[in-house]
Protein 1
Amino acid sequence: MEPLTIGILCAVSIFVGLLIGCVGIGGVLLVPFLTHALGLSIHVSIAAAMFGYIFVGAVAAVLYGRHGSIEWPKALWLIAGAMPAAYFGSFLVSVTPAFSLELIIAVLVGLAGLNALRQKSAVTVERKISNPVALLTIGSITGVGSALTGTGGPLFAVPILVSLNVSAHAAIGFSQAVQMPLAFLATMGNLAYGIVNIVIGGIVASGLVIGGYLGARLAHILSPVIMQRVIAWVLVLVGLFLLCKLSLGLV
């Protein structure tokens, strides 16, 4: 890999990591960049992204946990629902048309963002979702969606939790807690099939960790009002991005 390509990959990975650390969502941009800008195969791209999500998820979870933004007993219920659901999602990949899947995701993410923008004030007190069944359900949806899309989980966890009026920092914190074990599970499978490029994965992971660290620090500097607006706009823009990608035939 040429030095210029390595530099560009590092820069993009840092930017994506910044988004992941700050608002949870950002990984959805990484695989399209690897495939369409660098010309990597979709399998190598997803494997490299998942490898990187292990490390950025761990770093972000530690930072959010230190700030009290993750209630670990509740997060464990989410993880318990997400892990087995990821296996089921792997099966659905083989029977679900890619276009239909991404269309549904784009619409749901965009609507979640618009719903957050419609709220007149930010959620400053976390809504207490303590029912294990509800947490297992949210985790299951996150696990299936993660396996289907090659993302680390926040793409689904954040919109769901924000829509349920969970505070911004708590929603992102929960998504970070789920991201690392899901990415680890997927990477173990990718390693078994020999599709993890350690060089590319290492570069991606390094950039994501740097960006994720900076993003997590930034998130806890911003006020809840600003955080809600940032998340809402990121959701809307990601939804538009996915729709544009579909319309241009980049699926």
Protein 2
Amino acid sequence: MLTTIDELRNWSNEQHAAGLTVGFVPTMGALHEGHLSLVKAANERCDKTVVSVFVNPAQFAPNEDFHKYPRPLENDLKVLKSAGAPEVFVPSVAEMYPDGFDASVHIGGVSQPFEGQFRPVHFSGVATVVLKLFNAGQADIAFFGQKDYQQVCVVRKMVSDLNVPVKIAVCPIVREPDGLAMSSRNRYLSAEHRRQAVVLSRSLAEAERLISVKKEQKVKNIVAAMTKTICTDTDFTVDYAAVADPETLRELDIIDPLKHSAVVILLAAKIGTTRLIDNAVIEL
């Protein structure tokens, strides 16, 4: 296990000196099958894989769940060993943000709608820590999950705009048998709220049916159907449900197959104290 930036950089340099490629999977721990799918993809595409486990305080607002975010490190290390991750990077907060640290990365455009409106400090914190991890790990390919779709857009934009020499690979959402997207925050759900949470994936399926089968083009009708699915007979409240351009994340009013080859459906909803996000990319 590596715990310092110097150790991570030295490890990566050793792999490259041996002619090996390095895959990187950044996580905040509390690992589930979604994370392990990223490790599997990294192992398949790269010679060596390093997984970071770091709950990043910079991406949490004061009113969010940083202090109660699950940190089952011992179990995570066992899971990663079983998954075939040859190296794990577990830095302290002081290692990533030493005394006097006073920098941040701001990405405009794709960071501003949706999560950017509800969590205004979030993506600056994400971009800052991911850039630090990229600089330290010097990986050839970094692996992210589609489940955090807007985060992927922010990271891609940062890599492009700042000329960061790493390729970004995006892996499909991994879901529970009933359709709920796997998330570390699912463990916050009570049994009853967990039962209700399946409506999120059902709302995406309803949106896809309207777009692909019914050829519905008015986004307001699609959003209304999604909201009805989520809120009928459940305790959920919807923060947003939207149809957007998959590259720019600009919200659409009309779905025009002549202008778009695909759209992304994004949603966030809260039940009790737990906030969940989900998405689906629909080819037109």
Protein 3
Amino acid sequence: MSEVAPHVLLLEKLMDVLGLVDKHGHSLVPQHILYTWLVMLILICLAWLGTRRLSMVPRGLQNFWEIIVGGMEDFVYENMGPVGARVFPLLMTLFIFILFCNFIGLFPGCNAPTANLNTNAAMALTVFVWYNILGIKEHGVKYIKHFTGPIAWLIPLMLPIEILSHLARPLSLTVRLFGNIFGEELVLLLFFMLLPVIATLPIYFLYGLADTIQAFIFFMLSMIYFKMTFEEAH
């Protein structure tokens, strides 16, 4: 369902050239994993280029990364306080990874890993498991109060509601990102089929903005979940 026009995907063609395909000509490695590896390679190269010549007066890629990381760090600290330092590395990693995964889908012949439910579910479950682990470490047994509510006789009602609410969080993160990026790729494919390539250029600005917003929404919702975890339950 998440595979858009597989016959034009560049990495599938590369796997075909390398002979890493099954008897039907399909890549032995799923598309979303291939493009996840591509995004990881791009980010590793950009990180190396941005940090190989660090200086007190940042320039080039160092300046680019410092602006983005510094701005997002200030945002997290303003909303979470000093405790935000404990989760900022994970949040920032998710934001940058999702952003580049979204952007890679804008290139003809490439498929966004975030247009696949498996990629998004893995990130959403990471957030879900991690904020619950931190909640238990922070509050111990008292963490159960986040699920039971403040009044003892309401526990039979509040407990299943809160459990369902928490379970819905990774589902919401997964489906929201998947729906937006998958829909975007379908529309782009339709534009390529109906219009010349030049005619599709203006829509790239709109989709670039939408991709950035989707990465930020995932980042912000994850931050909210972590913030709620560190707060005392009443």
Protein 4
Amino acid sequence: MKRAVIVHCWGGSSNYAWYPWAKAELEKKGYQVIVPDMPDPDPPKLATWLPHLQQGIGQPDDELVLIGHSIGTVTIMRYLETLNDGQVGKVILVAGFTDQLGSKELENFFETRLDFSKIKPKSKHGFVAIQSDNDPYVSEQYGTRLKHELSAKLVIKHGAKHMSGAVDDEEPCLELPELIENL
């Protein structure tokens, strides 16, 4: 069965930003979709997020699509590092990044460097990185790094900021058609 798991951002929830729209669109395409409310979302903690994601996924297989937003992308990459065998079908990273962005609250996700040599082979159909060219939190350079390290297809959205909810007077991003186009 085709499955999708959407991992939300710092301070997010299953009903935040474009997640409900993506869930509905994926369900129209025959996916069973879960958007787990991650524990301790503000600030996020890898020690609780990773086991929660592992439990929500259960047994990974090549029918599974993992979709992450912001720190959710790092959670997914950390999850892929833990897989000893098996693969997921595809990984879509929205506003993804590879370093702690200078934020003390995110240091716990980066106690070790991401091991791209472990991450890259864990997605059967590869990676897609969707980045905005004016994200105030995650520089466009991270999309280029994900493209380089994971051979990700890089999709640049123009003027989409962080593709999140109404934060810091940002217009909320309630739909993300690039996600569906890149399944």
